[in-house]
Structure formats: structure tokens, C-alpha cells
Specification:
Layout: H1 3-12, E1 17-27, H2 35-38, E2 44-53, E3 60-68, E4 75-81, E5 85-89, E6 99-104, E7 107-113, H3 116-133, E8 140-142, H4 146-149, H5 153-241
Amino acid sequence: MSAKSAISKEVFAPQDEKMQAAALVKRRTKKKIPFLATGGQGNYSTYICLSATNKKPKQLYITKVKQFEGSNSFVGRSRWTVEQLRQVDGHDPDKDCPEFTLVFDSGSDQWLAGSATEKNMFIQVLHHSCQRHCTDRKPDFINCPSKLLGGQSGCSVVFRCKMFLSRLRHVMVSNQARLRSEGSRVLQSATESVGSAVQMASEALSERGERLTRTEEKTEELMNSAQQFADTAQKLAMKYKN
């Protein structure tokens, strides 16, 4: 299961919500947070996620989700309604870049996405969802390529196709890596099993050889004893005969 599928299942499904988009991000500028405030959890990965309620009228949320180092689970942290989102800054309307800023009523977060494609996909889905579901107040989208905002429909379609292919390529690469890893583990396990079986067979043959050797030695000793007994009996018979 991919990270985004796990987030959707663990974080949003229990709240009767559907995740619309997610981007793996890190801060462009590090925040100075006291050790006690973080609980000493250590390193973590951060995802910015857009979700919508399953019930109508749909309510949109932006949630910060974290996965701490050494853990397989995901935890929802900060959470805002889209109505609290004032502005989405794409930083450059002329070229793709991974930087973007989300400005809320309470402050702003400057993010660096894992890739420009991942950031563009998140902004495009966010813009489309806001246009479709927000009725009162919509956030401003500035410094974003027009292809993300539907300004050029032809370019937008091509861009969505490129994003889909990029996601598909990423999934295929991840699956190939997983299959190679599983194949290596299976091969290693099989090799260890074969090696163990060969060792056991070798030990069994060695023990059998030792038992055969001891049997041959005992047989030879018995034959020698029988021969000595026969010689002694013959001598005694000859003595009393005379």
C-alpha cells in the first residue's frame, strides 16, 4: 500500500472524508520548536492533504499529516477549513518549481514539495475543489501557471495527462522496488533453507559413516574372538584325544 493510500485509510476514512490530493513536503525555513513541544518524537515526514466530507454540502479541509521515523502509522496534526485559507502562492507562473506557500487567517507556511509535479497536482486539485464547493469565500491563487487554474484548457488537459503518467511511473517504480526486495528475501530464505538441508544431510551421512565404521570394527573383533575360540577348542580336542 502506498503512503497516500495509507493516509486516506488511516486518517480520513474514520472521519467519513475522502482525500482529494496530498503532497509530500518539507519546510523551506526551519521552525524553531522547543523540544518539549514536539514530545521528542525525532525525525518525521510531512504531507499536506486536501480532503472533502462525504456528506453534502461538502466541506473542504487542509490537514497536515505526519509519519514519525520508525513508525508505519500516520497522524493528523494541524487542520484548517478551506474558508480559513486566504492565499495560495505558486511562486513562479512561468516555470514549474516545487516551492509554494499557503497563507491562512492565523499565519502562513512555506513549503518545498517532493517535486514540481507533485506540487502542481496539489494546487490544481485544490483550485478545482474550491471553485466547485466553496460558495462564500475562495482563496486567491497567485503566481500559479495558468495551466493549473484552467486558463488554457488544452494545456490543462495535457498537463493532467503528464501528471497521471508521472504518478503511474512512480507507482510502477515503487512496485518494482518492492518486488525486487521481496524476491531477494525469498531467494535468501530459499538459499538458507537449501544450505540448512545440505548441512543436515551432510551431518546425517557423517553420523551414518561413523556408525558403519564402528559396526565394522565390532564385527572384526567378534570374528577374531570366534577364530581364537575355535583354535583353542581344536587344541583341547587334540590334547584329550591323544
